[in-house]
Design a protein that fits this description.
This protein is mainly alpha-helical and 117 residues long. It is elongated, with a radius of gyration of 17 Å. The chain contains 5 helices and no strands. Helix 2 packs antiparallel against helix 3.
Length: 117
């Protein structure tokens, strides 16, 4: 569930890529960012993805935000947005990897059972 090594590093880079794409789409189309709350809608999931905190939920939220952005820009930059949505979906399915807060919170635990006397 939380792979280490090159697979974990690749998942880390994929999370960063999705976060950058999400913020890029929010800032590239300034018509989408009308208030501070809308900018937080783009930035907060990106922060969660960078940290690897609640990664599947942040990735699904990223997908939904980018789908809404696709609807708002009415097909412009559709291919770029489709690739970004696809990479967000991949992160949601694969999970955060070992180099994340999720791995620390929900990862494998070592259970030590003391012997009976």
């Amino acid at each position: 569930m939380f792979p280490t090594g090159t697979a974990g590093a690749a998942l880390f880079l994929l999370r960063i890529l999705v976060a950058i794409n999400l913020v890029w789409e929010g800032s590239a189309h300034w018509t989408l960012v009308t208030t501070v709350w809308v900018s937080l809608a783009f930035i907060l999931p990106a922060i969660f993805l960078c940290l690897g905190l609640l990664t599947p939920y942040a990735a699904v939220l990223s997908c939904l935000i980018q789908l809404a952005a696709t609807w708002e820009v009415k097909g412009e930059h559709g291919f770029h947005l489709a690739l970004s949505i696809l990479s967000s979906a991949v992160v949601a399915v694969l999970g955060p990897g070992a180099y994340s807060v999720d791995a620390r919170l929900f990862g494998r635990k070592l259970l030590i059972v003391s012997p009976r006397r």
